[in-house]
Write a structure and sequence with these properties.
By secondary structure, the chain is of the alpha+beta class. The protein has 2 helices and 5 strands, in the order E-H-E-E-E-E-H. The chain is globular. The two termini are 28 Å apart.
Amino acid sequence: MVGYPILWDETFSIDQLSKCCPYEISEIEEYLFGNHYHWSLDEELTTFEVVDSHVQLRNAERHYWLFEARDRAKQRQWLVVIGTGKSPFDPSKKMKRWMYAMTNDDNLSLEQFLDQEYREQLAADRRSR
């Protein structure tokens, strides 16, 4: 899988988890375009189309949204994970928002992909204790 680095908001110690996605579609498209421009140097420049429908996963500590996007040049499916709540870096802190993207090379459904990412984050939380 190809992936782009995590983007996060420096705001820590939020009081309440967001009930709606903390990023706009335009911000997701800008994130994908900017990362493609900087990290995919061997590929032609492209734009991304983010599908507005998404899946969500919520628990008491984090809320997740998963969006699907396609790059116009290769028509690859990208999955963009967005979160709020317990920091993916330091579980003792809460973050306003973060996002990262990966290609869906395993052809997982949106629900399967988000479930896999959620389980990996729980494992990372346990390792950080």
